[in-house]
UniProtKB/TrEMBL annotation:
<keyword id="KW-0812">Transmembrane</keyword>
<dbReference type="Pfam" id="PF06532">
    <property type="entry name" value="NrsF"/>
</dbReference>
<feature type="transmembrane region" description="Helical">
    <location>
        <begin position="92"/>
        <end position="112"/>
    </location>
</feature>
<feature type="transmembrane region" description="Helical">
    <location>
        <begin position="189"/>
        <end position="210"/>
    </location>
</feature>
<feature type="transmembrane region" description="Helical">
    <location>
        <begin position="21"/>
        <end position="44"/>
    </location>
</feature>
<feature type="transmembrane region" description="Helical">
    <location>
        <begin position="124"/>
        <end position="148"/>
    </location>
</feature>
<protein>
    <recommendedName>
        <fullName>DUF1109 family protein</fullName>
    </recommendedName>
</protein>
<feature type="transmembrane region" description="Helical">
    <location>
        <begin position="59"/>
        <end position="80"/>
    </location>
</feature>
<dbReference type="InterPro" id="IPR009495">
    <property type="entry name" value="NrsF"/>
</dbReference>
<feature type="transmembrane region" description="Helical">
    <location>
        <begin position="157"/>
        <end position="177"/>
    </location>
</feature>
<keyword id="KW-0472">Membrane</keyword>
<keyword id="KW-1133">Transmembrane helix</keyword>
Amino acid sequence: MRTDDLIRALDADAHSRAMPLGSAWWVAAGAATGIAAVVFWLAIGPRTDIATAMHTMRFLAKFVFTTALAISAFALIRALSTPGASTSRAAAWMTAAPLLVVFAVVLELLSVPAADWGRRLVGSNMVVCLTFIPLIGVGPLAVFLAVLRYGAPTRPVLAGTVAGLLAGGLAATFYAAHCFDDSPLFVATWYTIAIAILAALGAIGGRLFVRW
């Protein structure tokens, strides 16, 4: 069978499921958000001064970064799960979150004395961040990998990696409500590492459970 014929067959199979693949992704997004919310509230919950923090730009900026990642990763993974679908536009939007973080870091470096850079980068919740973003995100990652199996991604490792980034963006959005470290330097370093852990787990999951 030629490659084009195989892709058309896979695409037809993906569209013939009991639930359309597009609908399955929205159901998965809702389920994953619910799982992340439950783990977040049971494990750590929001910071005690969140009412005050919500009036600061650094606190709010964290949610801009994390939701930008989650939204762009969601668009890309939907395309990757459908054989033959174009991924170029969705992949281009994946640069939005990193560019926003870089822009915020530059502003931070320009506005904060150099003597404070190290303190803001290390913060006070480094270990908590590296622990709870993966913990909150592992359930959603399992949900996203299950939907990838429901679809027919032709690049399972890449799709699994994006599933990890999506889970990481979702988990980091919840964790940001708890985190007392609002500096873009902290977010750019430790949030990135924590999300990368989920991306690596997603790549492994894609290779082991999604390949066909």
